[in-house]
């Protein structure tokens, strides 16, 4: 892919990243104050990689993500109202209030699966990609997962099958250097997850996921390969999570110097400064964008608050199968 990385593309990535960033900040505030009671795995620090991948995807493409998936879902284009209503377990939620944050699904925007079972998304993504290959519908499937997931058996099985069958799938490992409280280097035999691609005869690419241009290029190539029927790519985006594993995790297992070194390279302020110096937007335009996003957040929160809970008569519908 020889396309040049323009200031307009940088701005598009920044705007997607900022949407994620503002929603994440709002959710953490609501959780802290007790106005939202939900499990929450903050994507703080991983916004840019999701945004830079997201700009290459079409609405009809598929996404399979994890519990730490709100950045992926937003980058894919999920609307805020059904997303927020699902966090509040309301009937108007993406899963009618029965899935919750761990199971966000919104087929209209290609958000097919969100799973809390580490590593389980990869074989499911193969299934979606296989269906697209058989139907020749031109869709690609993006599956995202963490560094910890790359040590699960299903990761290896899925890579082998996807390569063998040249499935239109992109395996995006978001290597945030920790799986719960376990440091990557303590549990993984290779320096880079992408090295494992060699064992499955597919391209493996390690990239700084916090660098908009590098992530945009690597994502674009992986999506183009899948779209052209040339098969899967294992893309490893190096990143860091600033808010611990789950909401409320103090992250005491991360040495302070390590944390501070990452914080000094926080991708959001760096991307913002890059947008301003590129001339793609002014301070005033970025502030206006924040206002616009905050108004959408207010609207979706009000929608969620005003919506009813699912009726108790629906308790066994849409769960395992239709009730008689
Ligand atoms: C099969 C399985 N084993 C263990 C767990 C418990 N668990 C939940 S998240 C997690 C860490 C996964 O780390 P990683 O894949 O790096 O993703 P991250 O949370 O860093 O995004 C673990 C072990 C689980 N949910 N599923
Ligand atoms: Mg991790």
Task: Spell out which ligands are present.
Answer: thiamine diphosphate, magnesium ion
* Fourth-level CATH superfamily: Thiamin diphosphate (ThDP)-binding fold, Pyr/PP domains
Strand order of the largest sheet: 2-1-3-4-8-7
Number of strands: 8
Q: Could you explain the architecture of this structure?
A:
Residues 21-312 form the Dehydrogenase E1 component domain. Its cofactor is thiamine diphosphate. Keywords: Oxidoreductase, Pyruvate, Thiamine pyrophosphate. By secondary structure, this protein is α/β, with parallel strands linked by helices. The chain has one domain: Rossmann fold. It is built from 11 helices and 8 strands. The strands form 2 sheets. It has a 6-stranded parallel β-sheet with strand order 2-1-3-4-8-7, with helices on both faces. The chain has a two-stranded antiparallel sheet with strand order 5-6. Helix 6 (153-164) links the parallel strand 3 (141-146) and strand 4. Helix 1 packs across helix 3, helix 1 (7-32) runs antiparallel to helix 10 and helix 2 (47-54) packs parallel to helix 3 (70-76). The chain starts with 6 loop residues before the first helix and ends in an 18-residue tail after the last helix. The structure holds thiamine diphosphate and magnesium ion (MG). Thiamine diphosphate binds next to strand 3 and strand 5.
């Amino acid at each position: 892919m020889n396309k040049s990385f323009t200031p307009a593309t940088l701005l598009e990535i920044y705007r997607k990243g900022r949407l994620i960033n503002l929603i994440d900040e709002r959710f953490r505030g609501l959780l802290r104050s007790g106005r939202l009671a939900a499990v929450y795995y903050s994507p703080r620090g991983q916004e840019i990689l999701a945004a830079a991948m997201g700009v290459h995807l079409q609405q009809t493409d598929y996404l399979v993500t994890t519990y730490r998936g709100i950045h992926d879902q937003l980058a894919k284009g999920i609307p805020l109202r059904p997303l927020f209503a699902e966090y509040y377990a309301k009937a108007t939620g993406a899963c009618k209030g029965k899935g919750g944050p761990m199971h966000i699904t919104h087929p209209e925007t290609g958000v097919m699966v969100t799973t809390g079972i580490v590593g389980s998304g990869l074989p499911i993504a193969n299934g979606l990609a296989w269906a697209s290959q058989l139907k020749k519908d031109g869709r690609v499937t993006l599956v995202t997962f963490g560094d910890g997931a790359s040590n699960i058996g299903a990761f290896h099985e899925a890579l082998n099958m996807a390569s063998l069958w040249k499935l239109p799938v992109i395996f995006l490992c978001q290597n945030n250097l920790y799986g719960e409280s376990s440091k990557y280097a303590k549990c993984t035999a290779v320096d880079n997850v992408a090295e494992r691609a060699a064992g499955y005869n597919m391209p493996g690419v390690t990239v700084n996921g916090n660098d908009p241009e590098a992530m945009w290029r690597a994502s674009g190539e992986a999506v183009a390969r899948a779209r052209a029927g040339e098969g899967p790519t294992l893309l490893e985006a190096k990143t860091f999570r600033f808010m611990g594993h789950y909401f409320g995790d103090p992250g005491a297992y991360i040495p302070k110097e390590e944390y501070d070194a990452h914080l000094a390279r926080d991708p959001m302020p760096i991307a913002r400064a890059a947008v301003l110096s590129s001339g793609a937007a002014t301070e005033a335009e970025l502030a206006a964008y924040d206002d616009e996003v905050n108004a959408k957040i207010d609207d979706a929160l009000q929608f969620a608050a005003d919506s009813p809970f699912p009726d108790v008569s629906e308790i066994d519908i849409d769960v395992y199968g239709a009730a008689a």
